[in-house]
């Protein structure tokens, strides 16, 4: 027997050993052919909100005289088929439309056989071509190119591009079922999840189908469930669902059925947009209970089908990679976090290499499951639904451990308080915060968790995100107290940093009590002249100054400065900080001349030791400018504050608390100069930013609000401020 069976074969096949190449075995049937090539316009029961411009462009392409291949690509649930149907409906009175299901080889070949017949191919020739006697693609395209009138051929759901290719060739070769139509003949419109340009070649014009913006998504919800809430609530829900048309339709269908249903006792069903959003965030899968079985299957399987396809292409690890991405924070995942060496140590990704990982990310991107250039971004619904898959729940511990170990590897060489690393840390912070959602029963993982949370807290503190810093320090402290003990050196450091955050948040009483307690332990455990002990004592003095106890603050600072000067030297950064803080107390006492001399001396050393753009250097420059202002030289103070503001905004960020402090002092200068309009605008901007960053009740926020109220009143009464 010869092993040479290939192509399509009618009837049974007896083959020795293995088949070589694709083989389709068919049998003669007495049943009629059921392949339909009529566009299923009955599916257009919903509108196409937010798609007008795309539909107009596609319609123009179909009606243009040039023969075209148009590829409409997006992930599952984005409404590619709906857009294609709307285009087919709009051109139906001007061109002939054929619609073929390209999901599988069987559905594609059956549909194209009917297209060939309707386009004018002799039935005998079609029979020969579709039974393997002659080339079916050659017959189809010779027939299509001879059709006298314009036509549109839609190949719907061509997610697996291999079904379109000739045997042994690529789809982009345009030698198989997909080819470029003759000039003036017609257009092929393909809907697909595969957005890879290499898959379609240079012949095709590719059009992405984006998610709906929140306003258009809200209109979809309101059309389906007009009594489920306000337009604002619908817009919020639309944003939460990421503008995914399929998810919006299901949400609308759900609320259409529940918003008017009886409010029976014990029936905890969302009845409005706000309730649906809250319930979706808690248990997204359960909210697919309303809708047709087909829609429910679509939502639960739409992305799984893409992963099945990648598995068939030899990329089975694409599924656990998408699972892992969904277990991270609902934020872009920087590619530098995805360390193949770390992943390969997990049984979820055996023998993974960087090259293999790059291929997996590319494949997921090409099928619309993730997007982004230097990051991997998941659609929120894709993320939520993927997190609920059974294998994710079963392997939760494995994904959680990977999450932790990736963060540890990604942060190990990035000093969190170094501004040069802040862009990387900003991308990592959301993923550090979500580590709290996981449980780590293994002691080694708990120790690693404390390290990662401590690093992340230091970064959040450095950029002025006191709320995040407080939460992360608390989590690190809980782990360290349990694993290392409350008086271990690392535990004491975290306790100290937590007290500093309390001060930054304006809780001075709690901060003072915490610093005093920590200082007592450090004196006993580390010794009174240990650098950490001195730092705590120095920060305690800062709290005393903030509370108005200038004498107590000065006594503590002079003692700390004397020890640092003796132990660490005059040029040590910690010594300079103590000297700067002492000058601030002198300033508070009203001795501007002495304070200015001290600040100038500290600035000269800091510029040499830590550099002109170091945050400590900028703080001294800021203080000097404010003293110049208090001496009455407003113009010179403004020049200096503007320079400090420019550097702080670049180095620390536009909304860092220290940057906002400089902006606030500039606003005071403009008020002093009687530029009330500029002062009011600046105070208003600083108040809004401080409310976001520090909170509306923080002392600094309240001070700015008071200044804003004063300058607004001054504009009405033409009153100058008291200095």
UniProtKB/TrEMBL annotation:
Pfam families: TPR_10, TPR_12. InterPro entries: NLR-like (IPR053137), P-loop_NTPase (IPR027417), TPR-like_helical_dom_sf (IPR011990). This is Tetratricopeptide (TPR) repeat protein.
């Amino acid at each position: 027997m010869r092993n040479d069976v290939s192509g399509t074969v009618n009837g049974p096949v007896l083959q020795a050993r293995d088949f070589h190449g694709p083989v389709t075995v068919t049998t003669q049937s007495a049943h009629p052919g059921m392949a339909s090539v009529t566009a299923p316009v009955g599916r257009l029961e919903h509108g196409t909100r937010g798609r007008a411009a795309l539909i107009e462009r596609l319609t123009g392409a179909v009606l243009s005289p040039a023969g075209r291949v148009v590829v409409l690509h997006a992930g599952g649930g984005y409404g590619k088929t709906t857009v294609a149907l709307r285009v087919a409906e709009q051109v139906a009175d001007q061109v002939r439309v054929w619609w073929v299901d390209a999901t599988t080889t069987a559905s594609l070949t059956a549909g194209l056989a009917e297209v060939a017949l309707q386009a004018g191919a002799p039935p005998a020739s079609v029979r020969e071509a579709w039974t393997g006697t002659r080339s079916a693609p050659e017959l189809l395209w010779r027939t299509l190119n001879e059709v006298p009138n314009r036509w549109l051929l839609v190949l719907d759901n061509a997610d697996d591009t291999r079904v379109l290719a000739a045997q042994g060739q690529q789809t982009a070769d345009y030698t198989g079922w997909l080819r470029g139509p003759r000039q003036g003949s017609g257009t092929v419109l393909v809907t697909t999840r595969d957005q890879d340009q290499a898959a379609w070649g240079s012949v095709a014009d590719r059009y992405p189908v984006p998610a709906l913006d929140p306003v258009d998504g809200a209109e979809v919800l309101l059309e389906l469930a007009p009594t489920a809430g306000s337009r604002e609530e619908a817009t919020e829900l639309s944003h939460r669902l990421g503008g995914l048309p399929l998810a919006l339709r299901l949400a609308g269908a759900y609320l259409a059925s529940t918003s008017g249903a009886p409010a029976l006792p014990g029936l905890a069903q969302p009845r409005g947009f706000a309730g649906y959003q809250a319930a979706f965030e808690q248990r997204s899968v359960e909210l697919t209970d309303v809708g047709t079985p087909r829609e429910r299957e679509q939502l639960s399987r739409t992305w799984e089908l893409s992963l099945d396809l990648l598995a068939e292409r030899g990329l089975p690890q694409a599924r656990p990679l998408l699972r892992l991405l969904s277990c991270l924070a609902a934020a872009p995942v920087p590619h530098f976090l995805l360390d193949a060496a770390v992943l390969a140590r997990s049984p979820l990704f055996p023998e993974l290499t960087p090259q293999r990982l790059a291929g997996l990310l590319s494949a997921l991107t090409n099928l619309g499951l993730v997007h982004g250039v230097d990051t991997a971004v998941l659609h929120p619904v894709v993320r939520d639904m993927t997190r609920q898959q059974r294998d994710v729940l079963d392997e939760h511990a494995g994904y959680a451990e990977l999450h932790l170990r990736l963060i540890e590897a990604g942060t190990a060489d990035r000093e969190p308080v170094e501004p040069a690393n802040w862009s990387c840390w900003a991308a990592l912070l959301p993923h550090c915060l979500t580590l709290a959602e996981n449980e780590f029963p293994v002691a080694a993982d708990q120790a690693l968790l404390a390290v990662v949370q401590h690093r992340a807290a230091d970064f959040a503190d450095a950029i002025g995100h006191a709320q995040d810093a407080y939460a992360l320090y608390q989590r690190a402290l809980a782990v360290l107290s349990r694993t290392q003990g409350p008086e271990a050196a690392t535990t004491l450091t975290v306790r100290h940093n937590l007290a500093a955050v309390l001060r930054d948040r304006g809780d001075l009483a709690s901060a003072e009590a915490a610093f005093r307690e920590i200082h007592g332990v450090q004196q006993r455990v580390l010794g009174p002249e240990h650098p950490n002990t001195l730092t705590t004592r120095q920060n305690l003095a800062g709290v005393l100054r903030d509370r108005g106890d200038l004498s107590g603050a000065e006594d503590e600072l002079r003692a700390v400065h004397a020890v640092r000067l003796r132990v660490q030297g005059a040029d040590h950064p910690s010594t300079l900080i103590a000297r700067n803080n002492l000058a601030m107390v002198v300033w508070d006492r009203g001795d501007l001349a002495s304070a200015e001399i001290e600040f100038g001396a500290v600035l000269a050393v800091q510029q040499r030791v830590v550099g002109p753009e170091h945050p400590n250097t900028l703080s001294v420059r800021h203080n000097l400018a404010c003293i110049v202002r208090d001496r009455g030289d407003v113009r010179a103070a403004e020049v200096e504050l503007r320079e400090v503001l420019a550097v702080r905004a670049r180095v620390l960020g536009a909304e860092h608390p220290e940057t906002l402090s400089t902006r606030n002092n500039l606003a005071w200068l403009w008020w002093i100069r009687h530029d009330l309009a500029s002062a009011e605008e600046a105070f208003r901007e600083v108040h809004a930013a401080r409310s976001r960053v520090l909170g509306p009740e923080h002392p600094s926020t309240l001070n700015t609000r008071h200044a804003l109220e004063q300058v607004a009143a001054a504009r009405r009464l033409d009153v100058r401020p008291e200095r």
